[in-house]
Automatic annotation (TrEMBL):
The protein's name in its UniProt record: UDP-3-O-acylglucosamine N-acyltransferase
Catalysed reactions listed for this entry: a UDP-3-O-[(3R)-3-hydroxyacyl]-alpha-D-glucosamine + a (3R)-hydroxyacyl-[ACP] = a UDP-2-N,3-O-bis[(3R)-3-hydroxyacyl]-alpha-D-glucosamine + holo-[ACP] + H(+)
Active-site feature positions: 241
PANTHER family membership: UDP-3-O-ACYLGLUCOSAMINE N-ACYLTRANSFERASE, UDP-3-O-ACYLGLUCOSAMINE N-ACYLTRANSFERASE 1, MITOCHONDRIAL-RELATED
Pathway of action: Bacterial outer membrane biogenesis; LPS lipid A biosynthesis
Family to which this protein belongs: Belongs to the transferase hexapeptide repeat family. LpxD subfamily.
Subunit structure: Homotrimer.
EC number: 2.3.1.191
The encoding gene: lpxD
Keyword annotations from UniProtKB, A to Z: Acyltransferase, Lipid A biosynthesis, Lipid biosynthesis, Lipid metabolism, Repeat, Transferase
Any one GO MF annotation of this record: UDP-3-O-[(3R)-3-hydroxyacyl]-glucosamine N-acyltransferase activity
Enzyme class of the recorded protein, top EC level: transferase
InterPro entries recorded: Hexapep, LpxD, Trimer_LpxA-like_sf, UDP_GlcNAc_AcTrfase_non-rep
Amino acid sequence: MVFTAGQIAGILEGEVQGNAEIAVHKLSKIEEGEKGSLTFLANPKYTSFIYSTKASVTIVNKDFVPEQTYTTTLIKVKDAYESFSKLLEYYNQAKDNKVGIESPVFKSDTVSYGENLYLGAFSYIGDNVSIGNNVKIYPNVYIGENVKIGDDVTVFAGAKIYSETSIGNNCVIHSGAILGADGFGFAPNNKGEFKKIPQTGNVIIEDNVDVGAGTTIDRATLGSTILRKGVKLDNQIQIAHNVEIGEHTVIAAQTGVAGSTKIGKHCMIGGQVGIVGHIVIGNHVKIQAQSGIGRNVKDNEVLQGSPALNYGDYNKSYVYFKNLPKIIDRIDNLEKKER
């Protein structure tokens, strides 16, 4: 796709300084800019590159005042980073603007769907599935019975959505994600054998949720496993049965959340965090990578370590821990002198 600087400025409500007819067909970093590419300058650390970049067009903040000569055409906007992100979103929408039903697919006669559906080859859509408008389902996707999918949803290749799952509007489900598999529910009998507890609930995904590649979200034993609106999950995360994650919480890769735990709103959880089941984590909580959470967490706590401590206490303790060999040597020397 080819756009002129003038067209881009129109999309971003920006002002062109330079050649409004110059065309770009790809994106680049400012330090790696080439002729025909579009880049941006938001971080002052990279200002020097604007005088040497070969990018044809560069998005900058309105208050940018050049101190040297430059060759790139500028588009001045209120917020360069936000505008570039908006342009990336626009680019992806234009690039992925697929419509139509490929062949072969299996689509039950009881499926209902809205306008502008894209259904990729080798997909399976079960009975009584409801699909909204502008939905894109890429090849090799499985969608079980009684699933509901809202408007403007993208399900990438190879994702599996089990029966009874409900997905809201503007959601993205990446490749290999599995929504609605059975929770890990087993109970020992009097012979010491583990017998499966039927998992009869479902998964509910509210609006504006992203689910990363290879992430698994288990159905509830009873009731629902719920991701509230605006939740963002990275790749390879495990969300167990009956977990509830509050609005606009983000979780990084390889984190595991055990069954029936409730996580609040606007939390930030780092990679490889382990969270036990049946606890409550408050709102605006921050958990550093590789922490282990084994207790209830109050609003606004910042935690690190395993088992996790208050972030400030952890850093103080770590100072002592890393100096422990020196401290032991000092104690040994003092004991020798006392003898």
